[in-house]
Amino acid sequence: xxxxxxxxxxxxxxxxxxxxxxxxxxxxxxxxxxxxxxxxxxxxxxxxxxxxxxxxxxxxxxxxxxxxxxxxxxxxxxxxxxxxxxxxxxxxxxxxxxxxxxxxxxx
Length: 107
Known about the structure:
By secondary structure, the protein is of the alpha/beta class. The chain has helices at about 10-25, 40-45, 65-80, 100-105; strands at about 5, 25-30, 55-60, 90.
């Protein structure tokens, strides 16, 4: 069983990654920006017992715009999985788009 970390999992492609990873029998640490209690789809997935998936998805907070949040996330990950645990895959599905941006200048 592989362990995945998906940064940016609350919706869209990140959430779909989590669903498919859990469905294939792997475990995932899924991150959301801000308050994790608002990630209702992920909470449903994390509590799912379909195909023995219960406990295969863990939710963590990580805001990629905040160094403090990133440090807390890495500490939480180490506490959950232990300091010697290796990760098999990491998907960074979070981005930052600030306005005005380069694309607006081209138009």
